[in-house]
Amino acid sequence: MIMEQLAGVGLRAANVDHLFVSHAHGDHSLGFPMLALNRLGASTALNVYAGSNTVTILQVFSTLAFSNLKPQEINLHWHGLPEGRPAKTALAPDVTLSTTAVLYPPGVPTLAGRWDFPDGSSVAFVTDSPPCDAAVALARGCDLLIHEASFSAVLQRGEDAAAHFHSTAQQAGEIARRAGCPRLALVHLGPAIGENPDVLIDEARAGTELEVIVPEDGERISVVDG
Ligand SMILES: [Zn+2]
C-alpha cells in the first residue's frame, strides 16, 4: 500500500530518505519493510526516526524481511528517540523534529512529532492518542496540525474514544484551538466515520474559525496562507 501511496504523488521509494514512525502498531509500521525493500540500491540511506522501543521492533521486521541481505545493502540509519521525555532532533540545517510521548496503551510507546522549517513554517502530527496536554504543548503555534480522528462524537454518540486510546474529531478540534493552530487536517479516520468527512469537519470546527480539512491520501496541503 505504501508504494501505491507514493506512486500516487509521483514519488519512488528512493526519493524518501527521512521516515518518522509514531509507534509499532501494524497500521503505522508494516509499510516500513516494503519501503526499505523498494529502496535497495538507492544512493542515500533511509533515516528512520522513532521511539527507541519502536526502533527495536522495526529492526526485528527488517531482520525477518531481509535475512539474506547485508545491513549496508538495506542502508538504514536508525535514530532512536527518547520515549520518556520531549526531545529535539536536527534533521537538516534549520529543520528540527520535536517529539513527545502522547497517551498510549501499555507497552506501545507512541510519539507525536513536530517539524519546524527554515521559512518559519511548522507542522505537527498527533495520532493514536486521546487528547493530552503533551500534544497541545508540542503543537503550540503550528501552522498545520495533522491529528487523528478515529471516532466521531456526532456519529458515534456514547462511544468512548479514550478507552481505545484514540480521539474524536471534536477533540482534535479542541486540541487545535488550545494549541493555537489555525489549520487542522483530520487523518486516521475510523472505518465507520470516514464516509462522512463533512460531518467530521463541522464537528471539529464547532462553529469556530478553525480551518479543517479531511485530506485524501497523497493530497498536498499548503502549510502557510495562500
Ligand atoms: Zn493507528
Q: What does this protein look like?
A:
The protein is of the alpha/beta class and 226 residues long. The chain has helices spanning 2-8, 26-29, 31-38, 52-65, 71-74, 133-139, 169-179, 197-205; strands at 18-21, 46-51, 76-81, 87-92, 95-101, 111-116, 122-126, 144-148, 183-187, 211-213. It has a 7-stranded mixed β-sheet. Strands 1-2-3 form a 3-stranded parallel β-sheet. α7 (169-179) runs parallel beside α8 (197-205). The protein is globular and about 55 Å long. The protein binds zinc ion (ZN). The site of zinc ion has 5 residues, from α2.
What is the C-alpha radius of gyration, as a whole number of Å? Answer: 18 Å
| Multimeric organization | single chain
Low-confidence stretches: none
Distance between the termini: 31 Å
What is the averaged pLDDT score? Answer: 94
Q: Which ligands are bound?
A: zinc ion
* N-to-C series of helices and strands: HEHHEHHEEEEEHEHEHE
- Spatial order of the strands forming the largest sheet: 4-5-6-7-8-9-10
Query: What is the count of DSSP helices, taking H or I runs of 4+ residues?
Result: 8
Shape annotation:
globular
Helix content: 25-40%
Backbone structural class: alpha/beta
- Based on DSSP secondary structure assignment, what is the total number of beta strands? 10
Strand % is 15-25%
Mind describing the biggest β-sheet?
7 strands, mixed
For this entry, give a set of tags:
single chain; 226 residues; alpha/beta; 3-stranded parallel β-sheet; 10 strands; binds zinc ion
